Amino acid sequence: MLFAESLYSAINAIKANATRSFLTSLAIIIGTASVIAMIAIGEGAQNALNNEIDNLGGRVLSVYASQRKRGGVTYGSNPLIIKDAEALRNDKKIDWKITPSIEGSRQIKFGNNNMSAGISGHWTNYFDIQGYKISSGRNFTENENLARKRVAVIGPKVATELKTSPRAMLNKELLISGVPFKVIGILESEGSSGWRSPDDNVYVPLLTASDRIYGRKTVNSISVSISNDQNIEEAMVAIEQVLRRQHDIGPGVDNDFRINDWSQYSDLRKEATAIFTILITGIAGISLLVGGIGVMNIMLVSVTERTREIGLRKALGATHKAIMMQFIVEAMLLCLLGGIVGVILGAGMFYIFASFQEWTFYIPLGAIIGSITFSAAVGLFFGIWPARRAAKLDPALSLRYE
Amino acid sequence: MSIIKTVELKRSFEMGTQSVEALKGIDLNVQAGEFIAIMGPSGSGKTTLMNIIGCLDTPTSGQYLLNNQEVSTFLDDDLAMIRNKEIGFVFQSFHLLARSSALDNVMLPLKYAGEKKNIAIDRAKKALLDVGLGDRMDHSPSELSGGQQQRVAIARALVNSPSILFADEPTGNLDSQTGADVMNLFKQLHQNGQTIIIITHEEEIANQAQRVITIRDGLIETDKLV
């Protein structure tokens, strides 16, 4: 009954000073809104990042040659060769797909236009592993690879840069370092993904690249695509075993290759997102703190304004506790309402942001409950002092306060 | 039966470095069912006396027995309970909560008494009926006339069946006709056995009581039956 009276009185007091109450809780509203928006954006960014990593080699490990060291002395680097990739392919312990890449750039010419383009040689499963799709034409075949056929699949931007259209290039001859290649397929546009863009590259069979373009058996990297039910750590160990055997590396000697796990990049970006979230949450926390001080200030004003009312309540039998409760409930309600409005505002802000980013609209329930609870706690904390002042008022003097 | 008994009641206030004695030794005895008017010019100490016997303040020295209970040594929260159960206040300026209905205003002491809601509503309704406001229960103070507001205040003062009804200049803010109505209500309550103490500076009002006590310079000057 006492709590009900406190709540009733608090609602009345807030309604009676609606504008003032709104302005007072504005800092709470802004603080809560930013917490909600930032947590939601952080979460959304994380999901988007995870999707991106999954799409783009999240489960693909890349193996590179590296320098070999022993006791501080650097031995010459031992390059990766096609045979290494074949050894990995022949190892069936782990369910994986392997493709080596020979990369470089060469002058290419189509009609009267020429340019320098990235030319890479792969096995036929390369597009499948990377998740690239061929929009027209076809992929090269294993027979074409073995026969070192002069066939090429091109990214769509190659055509643009050669001032023609992909369609015009299909089944036509493209000169790579003056040697004619037949364009047999065009990739769908993948868009650039950070450091590499598959759209302006030319793809040829591995052995064609090895024998006809670059004249070397060494490969720049070997991609290992692991199925989803495989453990990445285990796969890395298996790669190490195969390659150490291939390169004849004895016990206690360092690897002469390194394995890149793309999920490392995701960890890095996760960390950056986390730091960003902490920063913004800190700012929001300060905003809530300032809001709390504002609430305290207004509550002190309210106590002074309502001295006569407090005197009356005391004359009618309100105890110290009853008056305390009345003003604490009022301060908490003010902050709680601010928190709820803030959550709605923050959710709205995120909704707009999410629709621009084409993210799914999702706000963790914990964030909503947490920020509303926190704003109520701010009210409790900053309401105590004004409430104590009210409770300590002398009834006889308060009744006659002008 | 003695309801109020004070012995050598003194109250002094610290005004800077000076100590001002507002009450210099009041010996007062009030029997159940009495209708008393306390008179005195401003500064005489009548407000201080009312604060103390109304349990809003405590004496500096002396004894105060309310219903044979020594309350002068009570702490704040105990005094709050005494005010809630034993004393009903009526003020010159009504002191109603502006945004609450008449019924909610009358229910307030019952809420502080921890009464159950349905019982509180029943008793508050009955109190409002008793002062003739049965048809105004849902009105807020701004929708009531001055006389009606004071009736709400009287209903609120009586709702917890207090031993004493205190009225501090109850007609001070009312025109003479409404003031007379309120005084008639007090007389009626007195006839029903309610102990009433009115603080006033108007002789006309005081003379409607049974017993008139005048205070001057912190002491009882006269104490006579009308």
Helices and strands, with pairings:
The complex is a heterodimer of chains A (402) and B (226).
Chain A lengths: L1 H15 L1 H38 L4 E6 L2 E3 L2 E3 L4 E2 H9 L5 E15 L2 E10 L3 H5 L3 E4 L4 H5 L4 E4 L1 H6 L4 H4 L3 E4 L2 E9 L13 E5 H9 L3 E2 L1 E6 L5 H15 L10 E5 L1 H43 L1 H9 L4 H38 L7 H27 L3 H5 L3
Parallel strand pairs in A: 6-11, 8-10
Antiparallel strand pairs in A: 1-13, 1-14, 2-3, 4-12, 5-6, 5-9, 5-13, 7-10, 8-11, 9-10
Helix pairs in contact in A: 1-12, 2-10, 2-12, 2-13, 3-9, 10-12, 10-13, 12-13
Chain B lengths: L1 E14 L2 E14 L3 E5 L6 H8 L7 E6 L2 E2 L5 H11 E4 L11 H11 L4 H14 L15 H13 L5 E5 L7 H16 L3 E6 L2 H4 L4 E6 L2 E7 L1
Structure description:
The complex is a heterodimer of chains A (402) and B (226). Chain A is α+β, with helices and mostly antiparallel strands and 402 residues long. Chain A folds into two domains: 2-52 and 267-399, no CATH class; 60-261, no CATH class. In chain A, 57% of the residues lie in helices and 19% in strands. Chain A is built from 14 helices and 14 strands. In chain A, the strands form three sheets. A six-stranded mixed barrel of chain A has the order 5-6-11-8-10-9. Chain A has a two-stranded antiparallel sheet with strand order 2-3. Chain A starts with a helix and ends with a helix. Chain B is α/β, with parallel strands linked by helices and 226 residues long. Chain B has a single domain (2-225), classed as Rossmann fold (3-Layer(aba) Sandwich). Chain B contains seven helices and ten strands. Chain B has helices at residues 46-53, 76-86, 102-112, 117-130, 146-158, 176-191, 203-206, and strands at residues 2-15, 18-31, 35-39, 61-66, 69-70, 87-90, 164-168, 195-200, 211-216, 219-225. In chain B, the strands form two sheets. In chain B, strands 6-7-8-3-9-10 form a six-stranded mixed sheet, sandwiched between helices. In chain B, helix 3 crosses helix 4 and helix 5 (146-158) packs parallel to helix 6 (176-191). The longest helix of chain B has 16 residues, at 176-191. Chain B is globular, with a radius of gyration of 17 Å. The interface between A and B is medium-sized, with 26 and 30 residues. Chain A: Belongs to the ABC-4 integral membrane protein family. Chain A: Residues 283-395 form the ABC3 transporter permease C-terminal domain. Chain A: It is found in: Cell membrane.
